[in-house]
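Hello Y.,

Per our agreement to keep a running log of every chain we model this quarter, I'm adding this entry. I've kept the format consistent with earlier entries: sequence first, then predicted structure.
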Amino acid sequence: MIPEIFLPFADEFGAFNVLRYITFRTGGAILTSLLIAFIFGPRLINVLRMRQGKGQPIREDGPKRHIVEKQGTPTMGGLLILGSALISTLLWMDLSNIYVWVVLLVTISFGLLGFVDDYQKVTRRHAGGLSGKLRLAIGAAVSLLAAVVISFMAPAELDQRLALPFFKDTLLPLGMFFFPFAVLVILGSANAVNLTDGLDGLAIVPVMIATASFGMISYLVGNIVFSGYLQVHYVPGAGELAVFCGALIGAGLGFLWFNAPPAMIFMGDTGSLALGGSLGSIAVVTRHEVVLAVIGGLFVLEALSVMIQVASFKLTGKRVFKMAPIHHHFEQMGWKEPTIVIRFWIIAVILALIGLSTLKLR
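Predicted structure for the entry above:
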């Protein structure tokens, strides 16, 4: 919106030319969403606390200390992240860019899905919200719609193909299998982040690390000079997603201010599903789906721990972990919450560096 308003006057006022640069607008998006989160965060927390009364219902089968320490904390903090990021993105993005609108569609849709889930939990005073099948069905439909639009917008040489890291010219033709694959990436990413959101600050920092990584990837693959130098596949228009990533980072930082232990508010499914879905959709646009599994390896680990636990118990009657997702396993081993959170942050940084290294190792 800001570029459309001020760029027509760039000939008279040369300073407005900075709005042509994605890097400048990304910085503006970060600061704008951060400021919005700081201003409206306390007000939103007060409103949610009054509306929700006893706060987010705590799982009875979870760690017992959570019932004591986290009882009464309001949820739906994802509203702060999504609201701040949405306003900031609309202010600083190129409104003609289809890719940003697709990612916003996924983010908002998953956010609404998570909001309904959180609302049912709060009103019913039960840790279970929407049925798992309904959540998956709605999420799959949104993901499929996004995949169809991304396929339609993709360059001919990239359409319905999978790029592999470390191989500069290798593209695997998926054909119609591209669509279920894209759905798996977006839906899997959304649910993996959702499973990670179990301790104060545990999910939001790795999400910001992954978002920053994909902001850089989006900028590079969307720039014909840099993509040529790095020998990654050029995706025209993908660079604008860096602005959206910047808005998410600023909103995430603002949310972390209130989510830092002890949390004043929880992200809830409203935030975790939306953030995971946005990462998955950006990965599909930039053709870095495999790299997402590396950069977001922490989320993959959390999801795998749940699948392994469920499969093991159903097949053998025994549990592999003391509790799943795996961050609860370490809690049961006696690790303190801040220790788990900070160590998981460190792992997220290491995985991001490994994932980003694939840009050059080709």
